[in-house]
Write a structure and sequence with these properties.
The protein starts with 10 loop residues before the first strand and ends with a helix. β3, α3 and β4 form a beta-alpha-beta unit. The chain is globular, with a radius of gyration of 23 Å. α14 packs across α15. With about 475 residues, it is an alpha/beta fold. The chain has three domains: about 90 residues, Rossmann fold (3-Layer(aba) Sandwich), CATH 3.40.50.720; about 220 residues, UDP-N-acetylmuramoyl-L-alanine:D-glutamate ligase, CATH 3.40.1190.10; about 140 residues, Alpha-Beta Complex (Protein-Tyrosine Phosphatase, Chain A). The strands form four sheets. Strands 6-7-5-8-9-10-11-12-13 form a nine-stranded mixed sheet, sandwiched between helices.
Length: about 475
Amino acid sequence: MTPVTTFRGKSVALFGLGGSGLATAKALIAGGAQVLAWDDGEAGRDSARDAGIPVMDLHLADWTKIAALVLSPGVPLTHPAPHWAAGLALLAGVQIIGDIELFCRERANSAPRAPFIAITGTNGKSTTTALIAHLFRTAGFDVQMGGNIGVPILALEPPSANRIHVIECSSFHIDLAPSIDPTVGILTNLTPDHIDRHGSMAQYAAVKEKLIRGAEVALISVDDDYSWAIGQRRNERMPLPGRGAIPISVLRQLDWGVSLDGTRIISKRPSAIGTLLGDIHNVPTLRGLHNAQNAAFAVAAADVWKIDASVIQAGLATFPGLPHRMEDVGRLAHVLFINDSKATNADAAEKALLSFDNIFWIAGGKAKDVGIEPLAHLFPKVRKAYLIGEAAQQFAATLAAHVPYEICGTLEHALASAERDAADLNVVQSVVLLSPACASYDQFRNFEVRGDTFRTLVQALIQRRVSGG
C-alpha cells in the first residue's frame, strides 16, 4: 500500500467503492485522512463497512469542511453530465481528483525523483504496460505495475528512488490527475473512443495530452494524426535537445526516433547509424502490427534507462502476453486456438484478423455500432465464421455474400464446429480464432469470463482428442 499523507488531518469525500475506491480509502486512512465514503450501490457500501471504512451519504455531508472529493474513474466527471457527487463538490468549490493524482502528490512529497512510467492511448495500453514491466523485471528492477491494469495504484508499494512504477492510465484517470508528471509518458495511439464521457474527439485527445505535457520524457506515436499533433505541440513547447517528443512509428522507418525494419525495432538519432533495440521475430505473444507497436514503445522505454539490448531481447523472448489478447490457448495437430476475447469491437478484431490466415472465426455477442462491416476487406482471410449471441443474425447478413457461416448460438457449439472444419483443412496451419467484435454481456458477465470459458473448452477438447475421445 501507498499511504496518502498529503491529506493528513483533513476530511476527504470519496465516491465509488469498487476495487480502486476501496484501495484509495484504505490508503487515505493509513495516511491520516478522515474519509467519508459512499457508493450508489449497497454492495459497495457493505464492502466498505466490512473493511472498516466510514460510510456516509455525501448528500448529507458538510462540504465546507471537505478538502477534496476523490472520484472513482468510472464515475462521470463532465459528460454526459457530472455525477451528483461531482456536482455537489463543484457547487462547494471542492477539488475533484482521483487515485492517480493522490499517488503523484505523494510521490512529489516523499520521493520526487522516483521512477514513474505512465502509459495511455486508445489501444495497446495494457500490453505495452505489461511488456514494459516484464522488460524491467528481466533487467533486475523492483517493478510495481498497476493502475488501469490489475492492481489499483495506491495498493502498490510506495514510490522510492529504487523502485519503478509502471502505470496504465485511462483517459478517466488522467482527467482526475491534474499534476500527473511521469518520468516517461507514453501515448500509444488515438482513435475515437469514450466520446460519451468526454463530449468530443478533440476533448478526448486533449485529456490524453495532459499526461504527455507533464512527462519528463515523452514517447509518442506518429502513426495517427491526433498523436502526431500532440507530439508537434510538445516539440514546439520544449525545443531543447532531449526535451521534445521521441517519435515512434511502425508504418514507416524514421530518420529520428524508433521504428520497424521488418520485425527489428531500430532507434535512430540524427546523423547516426541506427541501433537495434530488439527483434520480435518468432515471439508468439507479440504477433501482428499492433503488437509491434506495443513492443516498440516498450523497448524505447527500456532504452531510456539504457538497458542493454541483450537484456531487452531476453525480455521480449520470454514475454508471456496477457490473457484474452491474442492468447495462444492450445494446438491440436495443425490447428492453433487463439483467445482474443478482449476484441469487443470491430477495430480490435481487425488486429487479430490481420495476424493470421486460414481463419475459422468465432464472432458475436452484443454488437456495437456498425458491427463487422468495417472488416469486409479482411473477409478473404476467413474460411468460415461461427456466430454466437445476439449479433448472430446481424453478422450473418453482413457475411452472407462473402464468407460461409454457421449460426451456432453458444460458444461451446461454435468451438466444436470450428475445430471440426479447421482440422479437415489440408494446410500447414489453420486458426480457430475467438475474436468476437462484440461485448460479452448477452451471454457472459465480461470478456474475461468469455475468454476463460473458451480456454477451458479448448483445453478439454484437446484432452479428449489426446486421450482418444
